[in-house]
Amino acid sequence: MVASVISRLSDTKTFTQDSLPFCPTREFVNLRHGGPYKNQSNFGYLRVSAEDGGNELHSDIKIYRGRNEGNVGCEVSGSVALRQIIAGDKKPFSVYVPGLSGIPQVEEYRTESIVRRGVASGEANLYLRNVMFLIKEKNRLNELIKLVRNIFPAISLFVSFDPVKDLHIDVRVSVTGMSGKRIPLELVGTGVQQALQILSYVVLFRPFVLLLDEPDSHLHPDNQGLLAKIMLAIASETETNIIATTHKLKGSKPFTEQPGLANFHL
């Protein structure tokens, strides 16, 4: 949310809520913990810190309700370099992956800006095929297949869309290799869909922070452990840091056994 706010901040300190790339509610003021944002009180404060070549960088962010109804106020001070990372529009600082609740039977092609905004607004289920098509267009489909094969070893993905002839993006999945039966994406198991959703976000957006809401909820217990191991590999081999919630301690065991990781249990 904070990254979304400051990504819209240039020389102005206030802007409309509708201009935010991500906001989980129509009433922005209620996002503040404890009480709603106000114009002269009930501010929100956040300090983001990082280390660069042994130097400590800090960026202080203040969020409040704008003077006019529906406006968001934001003031940022501190490291300009850190602010540019947090507010970058090419590579999002953070990406939230909500729980998967099924996908539509068909999906029309959308531009990348619409896909990014739709994904950020919590409508991720409506854009999975578009996300996978963008991955193909950026020549990263093999990277996605390689990651997914850590969970489903024989999986192959086939993504096609002709902007001249097609209205809908076609995505088919084979779980028995390249020559196996190709199943429409909406007919494969929810566990496969969920793994594709999570790993597609990693491949397409390459965020600094990936927020996962119960990523293992539709996976078989054995595959839950495999997904956890992949997440650990991604966190150690890329710039992406992962924050995940789960009710399944068995699936999270690889995390609890990994030194240097913070684990919280409620």
From TrEMBL:
Tree of life domain: Bacteria
Residue ranges of every copy of the Endonuclease GajA/Old nuclease/RecF-like AAA domain listed in the record: 140-247
Gene3D superfamilies: P-loop containing nucleotide triphosphate hydrolases (3.40.50.300)
A Pfam family annotated for this UniProt entry: AAA_15
The protein, known as: ABC-type transporter Mla maintaining outer membrane lipid asymmetry ATPase subunit MlaF
Species for this entry: Thiohalophilus thiocyanatoxydans
Source organism phylogeny: Bacteria, Pseudomonadati, Pseudomonadota, Gammaproteobacteria, Thiohalomonadales
